[in-house]
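Students often ask what a holo structure prediction actually looks like on paper. The answer is less mysterious than it sounds. You provide the chain, you provide the ligand, and the output is a string of discrete structure tokens encoding the 3D arrangement of the protein together with coenzyme A.
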Amino acid sequence: MRAYIKGLGTFVPSRVVTNADLAEKMDTSDEWIRQRTGIVERRYVEEGTASSDLGCAATKAAAEDAGIALEEIDFIILATLSPDRFFPGTACYMQAKLGLPGVPALDIRQQCTGFVYGLTLAESLVRSGGYRNILLVGAEVHSHSLDFTTRGRDVAVLFGDGAGAAIVSPLEDGSERGILAHALHADGRFAEKLCIHGWDISRDPYMTAEDIEAGEQYPKMEGRYVFKEAVTRVPQVIHEVLAKTGHSVADLDLLVPHQANLRINEAVAKQIGIDPAKVVNNIQRFGNTTAASIALALADARAQDRLHPGDLVCLAALGSGFTWGALTLRW
Ligand code: COA
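The corresponding structure tokens follow.
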């Protein structure tokens, strides 16, 4: 039995934050951000909005798109690196807000690869567990945990808030659609290359006033290292997942990469030799929305009539951990 994406939905907050807005808070410029990353603007939530709120809004859009009632959702997977609280899991908050008591709720923490890991998990649960409408959400509120001083400019300019959701269901029409293959990886030896160092449960207390003074509560990244890893491992994993079904890059109709940096996606496209017109990029409008980015890009491709029934699509990502992976599907 195959699983497929029965419905797709997204939600981004209405507040647009331009590069010029950020330049008022820190020593940066529209030119620097555009040149290095391609980002023009991103969305930020208003005070009082959590990742679960964005996730619920995207869920409602996905359920409507799938033509199901919320009550038909029978499993919830939430991918986020910006959970509402340290515990319990944000999927539980979302489940309560959606009014789905009793439905299993699972958080996964694979950062920018969260949507690819989550789709893989959802597919397995459809195949092995008999679930009929698995809700997969990627939701992020980054704007409440970034260092908006010049000290944090290398990271703060990259990220935006948003959510994407998919309803994953068994395919019952006998067609060739659905999720075909996946390839997942992780290498925890590089965990410290992109993480929040100040949050350390091996210490008592796990975060000190000195940490906060030093800005260690904010994400830190070795940008060049992450960039190099992405442009090496993402092409590799795309080839790996395509090989599983005997496909090649030439067979692809659409590549939907994680949106971390437009330059990364351009370099990946060049390396694998795909026509840039087949690569979906919307980081220009949303920045890096981590676990939400692939769903936002996929939804954009569909809205722009770039995604058609039967198309061979590859999703691919690398993120903190490091985690990376790719998944192919026929739309
Ligand atoms: N505005 C202006 N200048 C900035 C800046 C900003 N927002 N951020 C950093 N700089 C400065 C640095 O301080 C440095 O100055 P110096 O030369 O005087 O020391 C200079 O720009 C170059 O910094 P560097 O970090 O080497 O830039 P870069 O070319 O590597 O680009 C990134 C930085 C973050 C855009 C790039 O490394 C990147 O995209 N990495 C991958 C990020 C990623 O994918 N993250 C998510 C993974 S899922």
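The chain has a mean pLDDT of 97.
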